[in-house]
Structure formats: structure tokens, C-alpha cells
Design a protein that fits this description.
Catalytic activity: 2-succinylbenzoyl-CoA + H(+) = 1,4-dihydroxy-2-naphthoyl-CoA + H2O
CATH architecture of the largest domain: Alpha-Beta Complex
Number of helices: 10
EC number: 4.1.3.36
Family: Belongs to the enoyl-CoA hydratase/isomerase family. MenB subfamily.
CATH topology of the largest domain: 2-enoyl-CoA Hydratase, Chain A, domain 1
Helix content: 40-55%
Pfam families: ECH_1 (PF00378)
Structural class: alpha/beta
Radius of gyration: 21 Å
Mean pLDDT: 97
Bound molecules: o-succinylbenzoyl-N-coenzyme A
Strand order of the largest sheet: 1-2-3-4-9-11-14
Number of domains: 2
Number of strands: 14
CATH superfamily of the largest domain: 2-enoyl-CoA Hydratase, Chain A, domain 1
InterPro entries: ClpP/crotonase-like_dom_sf (IPR029045), DHNA-CoA_synthase_MenB (IPR010198), Enoyl-CoA_hyd/isom_CS (IPR018376), Enoyl-CoA_hydra/iso (IPR001753), Enoyl-CoA_hydra_C (IPR014748)
Length: about 270
């Protein structure tokens, strides 16, 4: 029984943004287009994801699509113009790349809750999430070489880290569709559940995560990222180390000494082996 009462955090045009017991849920709300995203959809997701980052009540984020037909079918081909996806301002852009980076850098776990199609840029969105829970009806794949595009960033390299080089090349070169169990076998999703249990299971997973230490989760996410993200990944991990250091008496002694116009005394702090 699904008796989860989501409360609206903020009204948007192309997404829904809701809250329930520590969980922020972002739902692409364009089911008539199989939840394809426009520049506005992405801009709204970036705003919601940024809210999740700064809202202390939110410990985990769920990204999903409205209905059971699709999680997301990628960029809305009807607004793809000369040089990107064209928004109401007439400017072509590919702002989904900013969203991908935000999903990876927000220091809270992001779970993709996938029913139906996760295809093209919509597939990459679930790939960059920390975890994916799939309904039995979920279908996964890339379409780029069929529709005149490709994602050579996380959509290629991070996908290859997840499923291996051979499989990632197969996914992109053949543009085949994989069902939920095939996705599970290749490590592309964490769990497959009956479609009617998808939200219930996702909330159960969120609750288990919410019981855990937020700083441990934060450090782990940045550690997983650092392994792949080079200098930017090290910066993220190091930023978290700095956060922890700021919390220590040793770091506070440096700041206090400066403010009190005296020499800092670090002699009492241990020099760990
Ligand atoms: C999703 C599919 C497989 C669903 O098939 P189904 O269930 O048979 O439904 P349809 O009748 O086909 O669709 C229902 C209605 O929805 C519209 N629609 C579906 N997907 C899109 C879409 N992506 N854009 C616009 N409209 C869409 C249909 O047209 C239909 O509308 P009506 O009823 O009016 O006819 C199937 O629909 C499908 O294959 N969709 C296209 C999937 C696709 O190719 N997506 C785009 C892939 N490219 C990107 O996502 C690029 C963006 C990107 O992320 C990126 C990132 C970094 C670097 C590069 C890129 C890049 O690739 O450019």
C-alpha cells in the first residue's frame, strides 16, 4: 500500500517538486512527450536540485518521471535547434550537462526511480544518479548515433565505469534497448521491483539511507566521484576534508588566534601516526 503523502515544495511548469520525511522528489512532468526535457525542464530541475542541496531537512533526493510510461526520453527533439535545445529565450543550449554535474556533486544521495523508458539523455540522467531502482517495465538505452547526437562526457566514460568498456560501446554503437533484468545483470541498476511497488521500495531505500551518518555519506559520495573526476573530484573530496577540519578545535585555534591578535598555539593538538 502506497500511503506516502508528498507535499509540494514549490510549483513549477514542467516538473513537480515535493517533500516527504527527509526526501526531496523531483518529477519530470511531461508525460505526453515521454518526459523529454526542454531547457526550461532542466532549468527547473537545477533549481529544485539546488534547493535540495541547501535544505537541511532533505537528506536524499529522488529523481523520476511522471507516470509509468517513461522516466525520461532525453532532449525534446521538437525544440532541438542549431547548436542545442532552444528555450523560450531563443538561445540554443545543452544545460542538461549542468544538471548532470549537479547530481554528481550534491553531497546527498540521488536515487533514480525508473518506470518505462530511460533513453537518450534520459538514460544518462539515471546513469549519473547514485542509485537506480527500476520497475519491471523499465527499458534502457542510448539513441544518439540514431538521432544525430552523442554524450561523450559522463554518458560515455561514467557509463563505461559502470558496465565496462565493451558493454558501454555496445550500448552506444548498436542503440539497442535493454529490459530491467538485463540492466540489473550488467550492474546498470540496483534493484528491479514490480511497477506498483516502485515508489514504496524507493521510499524504503531512502529511509534506510536517512538513518545513516550524513557526513559519512557525503564523504563516500565525494570519494566515489574523486576516483573518476580528476582534479574536480579531488577538489570535492578535499572540500569535505576542509569542512571536517573546520569543525575541529585545532582549526578553530588558528582562527581564534588571528581574531585575538596572538600567536596560535597548536602544541596541544596530537600528531597522529
Ligand atoms: C521514448 C520512445 C522510445 C517511446 O516510444 P513510444 O512509447 O512508442 O511512444 P511515442 O509514440 O514514440 O512517443 C509518445 C509521444 O512522445 C513524443 N516523444 C517521445 N520522446 C520524445 C523526445 N525525446 N522528444 C520529443 N518528443 C518525444 C513522441 O513524438 C510522441 O509524440 P506524438 O504523440 O505527438 O507523436 C520514443 O518516443 C523515442 O525513441 N523517443 C526519442 C528518444 C530520443 O532519441 N531522445 C533524444 C536523445 N538525445 C538526447 O537526449 C540529447 C540530449 C543529451 O542528453 C546530450 C547530453 C550531452 C551531450 C549530448 C547530448 C545529445 O545527445 O545531444
Amino acid at each position: 500500500m502506497n500511503n506516502i503523502n508528498w507535499e509540494t515544495i514549490k510549483e513549477f511548469n514542467e516538473i513537480r517538486f515535493e517533500y516527504y520525511e527527509g526526501i526531496g522528489k523531483i518529477t519530470i512532468n511531461r508525460p505526453h512527450k515521454r518526459n523529454a526535457f526542454t531547457p526550461l525542464t532542466v532549468q527547473e530541475m537545477i533549481e529544485a536540485m539546488t534547493h535540495c542541496r541547501y535544505d537541511d531537512k532533505i537528506g536524499v533526493v529522488v529523481l523520476t518521471g511522471e507516470g509509468t510510461e517513461a522516466f525520461c526520453s532525453g532532449g525534446d527533439q521538437s525544440v532541438r535547434g542549431h547548436g542545442g535545445y532552444v528555450g523560450n529565450d531563443g538561445v540554443p543550449r545543452l544545460n542538461v550537462l549542468d544538471l548532470q554535474k549537479l547530481i554528481r556533486s550534491i553531497p546527498k544521495p540521488v536515487i533514480a526511480m525508473v518506470a518505462g523508458w530511460a533513453i537518450g539523455g534520459g538514460h544518462v540522467l539515471h546513469v549519473v544518479c547514485d542509485l537506480t531502482i527500476a520497475a519491471e517495465n523499465a527499458k534502457f538505452g542510448q539513441t544518439g548515433p540514431k538521432v544525430g547526437s552523442f554524450d561523450g562526457g559522463f554518458g560515455a566514460s561514467y557509463l563505461a565505469r559502470i558496465v565496462g568498456q565493451k558493454k558501454a560501446r555496445e550500448i552506444w554503437y548498436l542503440c539497442d534497448v535493454y529490459d530491467a533484468n538485463e540492466a540489473l545483470q550488467m550492474g546498470l541498476v540496483n534493484k528491479v521491483v514490480p511497477t506498483e511497488k516502485l515508489e514504496e521500495t524507493t521510499v524504503e531505500w531512502c529511509k534506510k539511507i536517512l538513518e545513516k551518518s550524513p557526513i559519512a555519506l557525503r564523504m563516500l559520495k565525494s570519494a566515489f566521484n574523486a576516483e573518476l573526476d580528476g582534479q574536480a573530484g579531488i577538489q570535492e573530496l578535499a572540500g569535505n576534508a576542509t569542512l571536517l577540519y573546520y569543525l575541529s578545535d585545532e582549526a578553530k585555534e588558528g582562527k581564534n588566534a588571528f581574531m585575538e591578535k596572538r600567536k596560535p598555539d597548536f602544541s596541544k593538538f596530537p600528531k597522529f601516526p
